[in-house]
Amino acid sequence: MTGVPSTDKEDMQVKAFAIEELGRPGSLRDLPVPEPGQGQVRIRVATAGLNPFDNAVVQGYLKDRMEHRFPLVPGMDASGTVDEVDEGVEAWAVGDEVFGSVGKMYLGEGTLAEYVTMSAGTVARKPSSLDHAAAAAIPVAGVTALMMADALGHSEGKTVVAVGATGGVGSYFVQVAARRGAQVVAVCRGENADYARRLGAAEVIDYTAGDVVEAVRSRHPDGIDAIADMHGNQKSITRLAEQVRSGGHVASAVGAADAEALGGRGIEATNVMGMVQKATLDTLAAMLERGEITSPDIRSFPLVDAGEALAALATGHVRGKITVMVA
Fold it and tell me: How far apart are the C-alpha atoms of 284 and 265, rounded to whole Å?
């Protein structure tokens, strides 16, 4: 290992927010400093980024799908400074400022802590032009949005309805799709309409004001080209997809694209899982540095209020991203 010797920290405790039981509130506590394993780096966390996935974890929705380790520290994303590296890792050195996602096949060693271990392949160098909150807001949401835009194919001149347009993934997707030439119809709460337009939406539909399908039909009687779904369910998206012309696309970040039902109508259906990799993080960081996209609205909480941050996330009505300031 390189960096701060393990012997200097083996008796140390770090502050972390953890839960002991799924579906129950967590608390701030002292836990041992994590040691990087094979192919990992240890990060001194400056800011952690939260995603709807983290709410699913703490509520127990994934208890039968992934291994959980307790006390369970939530959080997938973070930005901070490399503190120690596994001896087999050559890409990173102590002192590097990075951002990324944990990259583990189990849950429980997350980013709501002063230190976290991450896969060396799921972090990227943090641009100096981005603060830690902006960087921590990128990984899962930004990567998922980019994959969603890619799944929809060529977007120039296409009409794309974005469901959940002002959440974490949506905040990046609307910008990327609009930049690629799509006419984005943002489906969101009316209070977020101006925000959606700032992101690049050409139209806004307030889903609290009436039936979304009828609103799309009345505005686009000849049909639409694609749906990007960040917040729907299979029933609602299948119904909305009745407005998609044959040859169109439906991509969902929440598993709501029914390939069998849509394929029978000549519509390509893709369920996207945001797999974070260094190369994609580099792409997003470069886009932000060049001003091609901007950071979403960010609401920050201190680590001591991580429980409140998770409660805000659980409402399902977050505009932009929620981050937790650790250092």
Answer: 34
Q: What are phi and psi of 196, to 5 degrees?
A: -60, -40
Other residues' Cβ atoms within 10 Å of the Cβ of residue 32: 13
| Cis amide prior to 71 (ω within 30 degrees) | yes
Is residue 9 very low, low, confident or very high in pLDDT (cuts 50, 70, 90)?
low
User: What burial class does residue 35 get, using C-beta atoms within 10 Å of its C-beta: 0-12 exposed, 13-18 middle, 19+ buried?
Assistant: middle
pLDDT band at 12 (very low <50, low <70, confident <90, very high): confident
Beta bridge partners of residue 27, listed in sequence order: 18
In terms of pTM, does the model score above 0.90? yes
Count of all residues that appear for the chain in the document: 327
Query: What's the CA gap between 256 and 206, in Å, rounded?
Result: 20
Q: Is 105 exposed, middle or buried (0-12, 13-18, 19+ CB in 10 A)?
A: exposed
Angle at 169 between CA 166 and CA 327, to 5 degrees: 100
**For 47-86, how does the pLDDT look when each residue is reduced to its tens digit (9 = 90+)?**
999 999 999 999 999 999 999 999 999 999 999 999 999 9
Beta strands in 23-148 (DSSP E): 27-32, 40-50, 67-73, 77-85, 97-101, 106-109, 115-119, 123-125
Q: For residue 161, what are the contacts with CB-CB under 8 A and spacing of at least 6?
A: 185, 187, 205, 216, 224, 226, 227, 228, 240, 243
Sign of the alpha-carbon torsion through 249, 254, 255, 258: negative
